Amino acid sequence: MRDRVSIGIDIGGTKVAGGVVGPDGVIAGRRRRDTPHLSTAATVIEDLIVEVVEELMTGLDPESVAAIGIGAAGFVAADRATVVFAPHLSWRDEPLRERLQHRLPKPVFIDNDANAAVWAEWRFGAARGHSHVVMITLGTGIGGGLLWEGQVIRGGHGIAGEYGHMQVVPDGIRCQCGNRGCWEQYASGNALVREARALVTSRSPIAMDMISRVDGDPANLTGPLITEAAREGDRMAIELLAEIGTWLGVGMANLAAAFDPGIFIVGGGVSAAGDLLLDPARVAFAKQLTGRGHRPEARIVVAELGNDAGLIGAADLARASVDGP
Amino acid sequence: MRDRVSIGIDIGGTKVAGGVVGPDGVIAGRRRRDTPHLSTAATVIEDLIVEVVEELMTGLDPESVAAIGIGAAGFVAADRATVVFAPHLSWRDEPLRERLQHRLPKPVFIDNDANAAVWAEWRFGAARGHSHVVMITLGTGIGGGLLWEGQVIRGGHGIAGEYGHMQVVPDGIRCQCGNRGCWEQYASGNALVREARALVTSRSPIAMDMISRVDGDPANLTGPLITEAAREGDRMAIELLAEIGTWLGVGMANLAAAFDPGIFIVGGGVSAAGDLLLDPARVAFAKQLTGRGHRPEARIVVAELGNDAGLIGAADLARASVDGP
């Protein structure tokens, strides 16, 4: 049964995306629902998941489907059954696996979306062949996954990899998590847009080109727009990506001190900036790495599977739980 | 052969300590040599190790000895054969295992001393029964070990667990590693003594009792003396241990965000301060932990095996490599 497909579902803050994933990681069919808003009731999300899975399974031989994997942005308990806390959803200690298993015809597994993503990159993407992998997903915040000798390290309570909430600046910028100085306040899409808005609002001389680009309205600034501007040579955008990248490198050096990975995979929307982000990160990493000169340095590369990593990984983790690796 | 003993050797900056360790972790015999000074030639240390092992094996049935384990303060490569870099010794890419194996009658394994310590605490000490363990050894600096599902995580290049060199203060105090703001500059025996000396030297009002305690000479200050003073109610000593403890808690919250251990084990000389150190650490940890209120909190406890953890762990890791767990 090693050639069975699986169903992967990626639940973010604003969408439920699903796909049929082959044992080779290729997505054969997709479905998607937008979720109305942050406070969408848990049962509504559940209904959307069931709808998406049923649509994806229509026309498939049920025998050819091994399992259903759900990747969710939130703390998932070590039992891979309960969503303990999802900051962008209304789930609190939600027994999601049990609820879904009653309504779906195949074994269901829940994972944190970043854990799913690092698995996908290790099986099919940029981390193939590596035994010690740290994945950093730069979206609105920082997501993280940790893989060691072919296994996702989920932590004692299932919530490892929350790198974004490591403190890098004492008494620093307040984070949505309630603390101050969290890494993701300095190296994330939110940080990029916040700093750009500050420069545009203050009408800094370096912001003049950007001000015309957004018709003078800081609210029009987005991560993709800043990345595009940087690619076209906008000095402010290049500087801001370098700032974000420098903080990225500092945080990666911290993670290297602790875990000593062979490779860092950088994914998420902000990683689309490529070397405009990663070159400053590599410089800061090399400067900050403890024992530099006496140790091999980890590689720092962009993720290969883009936005599909969570979906592919959730599906493949579920498949591997049923059919083996 | 599961009842064979093993020989453990702990190499620090100033000593070579050895012991015969039973499969139950109990030390049956000890030998020790002081090492002259930091620049002691690699071959001298080697000779001392061979001497200590030979003395320990005298009178033992050679068949009853499974292996010889060396725990060294330094970067040990993932092959457990090479000391890449030892800050307090003159080893640089030293093929220690090969050199010793030529001269010793049993299989030799090299490990980082902190890796050995976390293994010992998991097998015989405070971490028994835990699957996700972070050990923090507070000596002159911070050593670290990481254990997951009964395996020491050594990292992609063998040098995981260097927690002490995670940056906690941007542009902070210069560290011996060459960087600034490393955690061990804020939470270690060195930090404790440095701050105490500064207060004594400045003749701060809070230092008056301590000044008489050290006969006015800041050079007389040591970690154990400060801990003893704190136990006797010295206000300056209590405050300094609380400062160190607070930074300890902040760094542990960072590690919890990344690795989510079930338990933190705090060892090393400074841990002798017990709750004078750990209570402030627990407060800072609880305050700084991301997702607090939505997650189980890791326990924070003092190591049980004291200075013997490295020796016992090195011996038992070697034994387990030959005879199985």
Offer a quick outline of the entry.
Two copies of one chain form a homodimer. Chain A is α/β, with parallel strands linked by helices and 325 residues long. Helices cover 36% and strands 21% of the residues of chain A.
Question: Could you give the topology of this structure?
Answer:
2 copies of one chain form a homodimer.
Chain A: E1 5-11, E2 15-21, E3 27-34, H1 42-57, E4 65-72, E5 75-76, E6 83-85, E7 92-94, H2 96-103, E8 108-112, H3 113-124, E9 132-138, E10 142-148, E11 151-152, H4 189-201, H5 208-213, H6 223-231, H7 235-259, E12 263-267, H8 275-288, E13 299-302, H9 309-323
Describe the 3D structure.
2 copies of one chain form a homodimer. By secondary structure, chain A is α/β, with parallel strands linked by helices. Chain A folds into 2 domains: 5-120 and 308-323, 2-Layer Sandwich (Nucleotidyltransferase, domain 5), CATH 3.30.420; 129-303, ATPase, nucleotide binding domain (Nucleotidyltransferase, domain 5), CATH 3.30.420.40. Helix content of chain A is 36%, strand content 21%. Chain A is built from 9 helices and 13 strands. In chain A, the strands form 3 sheets. A 5-stranded mixed beta sheet of chain A has the order 3-2-1-4-8, sandwiched between helices. In chain A, strand 10 (142-148) and strand 11 form a beta hairpin. In chain A, helix 3 (113-124) packs across helix 9 (309-323), helix 4 runs antiparallel to helix 7 (235-259) and helix 6 packs across helix 7. At the A-B interface, strand 10 and helix 7 of A face strand 10 and helix 7 of B.
